[in-house]
Every structure is written in C-alpha cells, then in structure tokens.
Amino acid sequence: MKSDNQTKSNKFNLKKILIVLVIAIVAIAGIVVAFSIQNTKKMHSDAIAELKLKEGFKLSSGLTVEETAKALDEAGFVDKDEFLTAAENLSAEDFDYLDTSSYGADKLEGFLFPTKYEVSKDADATMMVITMLNEFENAFTDEFRDRADEMNMSIRDIIIIASMIEQETDIDKERADISAVIHNRLNMGKKIDGGMPDKPLCSPGIESIKAALYPVETENIYYVLSDKLDGSHVFTADKAEYKELKKAYEAAK
Fold it and tell me: Which of 3, 61, 138, 251 could form a disulfide with 114, with the two C-beta atoms 3.0–4.6 Å apart?
C-alpha cells in the first residue's frame, strides 16, 4: 500500500508530465500555425507572381503603329511616346522583311502582329516592340515565305495587300475573294481604287495574310458593298454589272 508521501509524489510527477505535454502540444500547434501562415503567404505570393506572369493584352487586327501605342498606353502597359520612340529607333536591318529605306515608326507598319500577349508590366517599350515582331516572324511561316516567292512578291508586298483586305472586310469568307480582285487588277495593270499604297495600312490578322497569299481563282476585278447593308460584298468581272450593283447599294443606303 502506497504512503501519502508516495501518492503526493506521484500526483506531482503526473502534474509535471501534463504540463510538459501541454507545452509540447502548444509548441506543435504554434509550429503548425506558423507553417500554415507561411504556406498561405507563399501561396498568396505564388498567386500574385502567376497573375503578374499572366497579365497581358490582346492586340486587335487592323491597328496602325500609332493606334497600337495608344491602346497599350490606355491599358497601362507602356507610355505611348516611349513605344513610338522604341519603334522609331529599332534597327530595320535586324528583320529581313522591314523596309530599311523607311524612316521612323513607318518601317514597322503592318508588322506588329495582332495576337494575345502575356507580358510583365515591367517590360519596357523596346521589349514589347521586339516581341510583336518576333510573333510576326513566327506567324509568317516558311510555307508563307515560299508562297510569296512563288508569287514573285516580297513579304512586304503581301502585308500591303493583307492590310488592304483587313480594312475592306470583317467577314473571313470574303477575304480571299477581295484578295483575288486585288491580284487580278495588279496582274492586268489596272488601277486599284484609291491607288496601291506604298506601305501597309495597318497590321493585318492571320486570316487576311492567308487571303493575300491564297486568293480564290476567279476573273472578278470588281467588288462593291451589298445592298443587303450587312457589310458583305458582291463580286463581278463585268463593269456594267458593277455599276448596277453600285447603284443598288447607293439606293439601299
């Protein structure tokens, strides 16, 4: 049978064990909480980093260099004047399709490829310009280069025609028809309405570039907006029919 002293001693030892256990549990809980907080902070930090990495913009087709600079400025990505200065100062000799005889930002007109870009907001203007030109190079494949050679046209010639198509229609299925009219008129030595531009009018999208390279086979040399007033066009090889179609459109307006 245990004495009172032994009982007291056992109670005291039990109390010490319980205290140690409580301290240990609290310590472990503290470590868990600390780890949880640290982990949450890391996850939050990773999320911010991921968001920053994924910040970007979609460049629409049909924009000029000036309009591109303005759009990026308004979106808070780069100062408009800094972008234009970067465009002006870029060496055309580093890109075989740029016109080395053009001055200022004109030499880049048509080649700031419209697509989705993911860039850090820390990217400077020069980096953005080079990235857009690199995207154009990626889009204008070796197949496209070979096709331009086959047509006896430079890349710049193709982009000029593609920019005309881009400004003429938003309807993809019409692009190759408009391209055919432009090519047919050029091959026949006929004038282009408004004249053939000496530089791209804007940055065309990939569908307009494809259309410039692969026009449909047709004898059409005229097109006019449809009297449906839906933005579509009507195509013809006959001048008299063209005049009638034009009258119909004017009457419907």
Answer: 61
What's the pLDDT tens digit per position in 226-242? 999 999 999 999 999 99
As to burial, measured by CB atoms within 10 angstroms (0-12 exposed, 13-18 middle, 19+ buried), residue 66 is: middle
CA distance readout (Å), 174 to 122, 181, 230, 248: 40, 11, 13, 20
Domains of the chain, residue spans? 57-139, 142-252
pTM, two decimal places:
0.77
Say which residues have a Cβ less than 8 Å from residue 54's Cβ, sequence separation at least 6: 118
- How do strand 222-225 and strand 116-118 relate by DSSP bridges? unpaired
Characterise 236 by phi-psi region: left (phi > 0), alpha (psi -120 to 50), beta (else).
beta
Assigned token pair, 233: 């066009």
CA gap 63, 3 in Å, rounded: 98
Whole-angstrom CA distances from 131 to 117, 126, 155 are 9, 9, 19
For 69-120, what is each residue's pLDDT tens digit?
999 999 888 999 999 999 999 988 889 899 877 777 889 999 999 999 987 7
> Whole-angstrom Cα distance, residue 230 to residue 27?
74
- Euclidean distance between CA atoms 157 and 212, whole angstroms: 9
**Whose CA is closest to 74, among 132, 66, 1, 86?**
66
Query: Could you give the CA distance from residue 109 to residue 87 in angstroms, rounded to a whole number?
Result: 10
